[in-house]
Each structure stands twice: as structure tokens, then as C-alpha cells.
Design a protein that fits this description.
233 residues; mainly beta; Mago nashi protein; Immunoglobulin-like; six-stranded mixed β-sheet
């Protein structure tokens, strides 16, 4: 059985979602365009727990036709789930009730979980010394990156989403670096955040926007480093 899960449109900061996840008996393939941790191509095997949760959700959807989905709100991300002989589309955050709603939850979680199995992707994280952040190529295959209009936003949070600092700018001003280039193992781009004052107990979130080039098409992507904040007691 092949299961396909697609999220399109919506998005944040002008970067629309264009996510898809395809799972069959042999494993999975995925594309992430707006994500935490990494963006690009992903592929591999599901874990035993992931496969078990998916199989249980699919069995619960076996009986009857696909449900009638709620009306999609204007501007909302459109979600589509395709199973053999059945499909349903709905707005993100408003899945059908019952078994198909549980299937939506499982597929949404898997779409995020598989970013730790890159095929050709770009990840984000802080530098080892904490003085900036970096983008790194991850996975065994190359991917083309266009940084010509790349930008970032770094925000310092104190407590529960109390903003105490912000820094925005281009990912790079080096003309040689901004040109579209094929990246592979070892490629990295470091962006300093020295102008950002980060105190003890404060947390930095960083969002980077740039383009990945696949064939003749360039896809705007957004990848975020967002460690958890501590909620109030």
C-alpha cells in the first residue's frame, strides 16, 4: 500500500508550504520546504514504532468511504491524504473527525520525524561556540542552494516568549557564495550573531530563508532552529 500526504500553500513569512511524504512497504520519501531542523529531500525506513502507529491508523480508516472534509479557510494550508481508492483534502488544523483525524495526526508527526533521515538537505543549528549559527549540507547526495536572496531572523527570548533582542540580515554578502552552487558533504555556511546580546537563561531562535534548486525550478524554503522554551509554572 502507498500512502501520500501533502501540505501546500499557507506558510509563514511569505514562504508557502510545499511538503510531501510518500510511504510504501519499502520505506518513505519526503520533501520538506518549511521545517524545523532541515529542509530538502529525505528518504529511508520508518522505525518499528512509526510503522506500527501508521498501520494502526490505516486499519482504523479501512471501513467506509473517505469522510467529507470541512471547508478550507482562505489562506490556510491545504492538506491532502491519498490512500488506494480513497482520498480526502482539508485545511491544516481542521482534519476530519474520528479515524481520519488520527491518521492526519500520525502523518503530520511522521512528516516532522523523518527530517533526521536526510538524502540531500540543508540543516540549521548554532555554532559550537554559540557565537552564530550555521547551515550544513546533510545526507549522501548533493543539492543545489541559491543564497542570492537568503535572509535570517534571530530572536532572543527570556522566559515564556518575552522578546529581549532581535537581529535580521542577509545570510551572506559574498557574491561568490550567493551564486547557485551544488552542495555536498562538508559544505557549511556560518553566520555570526555577535551583535546579538544573549544573557544567561535566555534562548535564541533562528529562522533562515533561501532557495533550493531542483532541476530548472527554485523552491523558496524556510528552516528554523527553535529549542523549546520553559513554560511558566
Amino acid at each position: 500500500m502507498t500512502v501520500t500526504y501533502v501540505r501546500s500553500g499557507g506558510g509563514r513569512g511569505g514562504v508557502p508550504e510545499g511538503e510531501w511524504l510518500e510511504i510504501d512497504d519499502g520505506g518513505f520519501r519526503a520533501w520538506r520546504q518549511v521545517a524545523e531542523v532541515a529542509v530538502g529531500h529525505f528518504a529511508g525506513e520508518l522505525t518499528g514504532d512509526e510503522r506500527g502507529r501508521l498501520d494502526a491508523a490505516l486499519r482504523a480508516c479501512d471501513s467506509g468511504e473517505a469522510p467529507t472534509a470541512p471547508v478550507v479557510r482562505p489562506g490556510a494550508t491545504l492538506v491532502s491524504v491519498d490512500l488506494p481508492g480513497r482520498s480526502v483534502s482539508y485545511g491544516s488544523g481542521t482534519p476530519p473527525a474520528g479515524a481520519w483525524g488520527e491518521l492526519d495526526r500520525v502523518l503530520n508527526e511522521l512528516c516532522d520525524a523523518v527530517t533526521d533521515r536526510p538524502r540531500a538537505a540543508i540543516s540549521i543549528g548554532l555554532d559550537d561556540d554559540g557565537g552564530g549559527f550555521r547551515l550544513d549540507h546533510v545526507g549522501p547526495e548533493p543539492i543545489d542552494v541559491d543564497l542570492s536572496s537568503g535572509s535570517f531572523v534571530a530572536v532572543v527570548w527570556e522566559g515564556w516568549y518575552h522578546e529581549v533582542g532581535r537581529l535580521e540580515g542577509p545570510l551572506t554578502t559574498d557574491a561568490a557564495t550567493t551564486a547557485t552552487a551544488s552542495t555536498d558533504e562538508g559544505w557549511a555556511l556560518s553566520v555570526p550573531l555577535a551583535a546579538l546580546d544573549v544573557g544567561e537563561g535566555q534562548v535564541v531562535h533562528v529562522t533562515a530563508r533561501f532557495s533550493l534548486v531542483v532541476g530548472d525550478d527554485a523552491a523558496a524554503v524556510e528552516v528554523a532552529y527553535v529549542p523549546a522554551l520553559t513554560p511558566p509554572a
